[in-house]
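User: Sequence recovery, please. Input:
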């Protein structure tokens, strides 16, 4: 039961983290956004703040809880599987801390602007946000990749362990008879 529970929890965490990582990666991969003129960019930023502001806390906090459960459940699955889970947990924690302490204040600032007349220095705030967002994206993508690798490694080791299990060997012998 425990390996099945680990599989379910880790797969769900990986899926949620994949949604987040994909969303933030898309922004980095859309260079045309950075070229928007001030009013258009501020409107985009404000709309993004509204949509992400609703979805991301629930998504990331649920993912964080599932990652914690993944680490607990994978403790005896080998140092690599456990270590990758811990790394993903730490990276997502770092992502949340970076978002709350650095990106969210910039988002709140941008949300207070008049989009038709962005303040002087808006481009500096945008540049700071992009740099921080890129760091957050790297952390999210690395955490996602770590979970994918852990899933792959753990499945491979499960097969090896299963074939060495005397009960599995006994069942194979019985089924051949």
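Assistant: Recovered sequence (177 residues):
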């Amino acid at each position: 039961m425990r390996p099945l529970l680990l599989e379910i929890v880790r797969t769900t965490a990986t899926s949620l983290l994949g949604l987040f990582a994909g969303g933030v990666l898309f922004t980095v991969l859309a260079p045309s956004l950075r070229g928007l003129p001030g009013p258009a960019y501020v409107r985009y930023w404000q709309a993004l703040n509204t949509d992400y502001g609703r979805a991301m806390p629930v998504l990331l906090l649920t993912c964080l809880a599932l990652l914690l459960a993944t680490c607990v459940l994978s403790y005896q699955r080998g140092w690599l599987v456990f270590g990758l889970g811990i790394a993903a947990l730490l990276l997502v924690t770092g992502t949340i801390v970076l978002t709350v302490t650095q990106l969210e204040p910039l988002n709140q600032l941008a949300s207070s602007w008049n989009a038709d007349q962005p303040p002087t220095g808006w481009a500096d705030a945008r540049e700071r946000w992009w740099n921080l967002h890129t760091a957050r994206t790297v952390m999210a993508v690395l955490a996602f990749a770590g979970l994918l690798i852990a899933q792959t490694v753990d499945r491979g080791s499960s097969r090896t362990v299963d074939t060495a299990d005397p009960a599995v060997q006994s069942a194979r012998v019985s089924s051949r008879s």
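Residues 160-164 have pLDDT under 50 and may be disordered.
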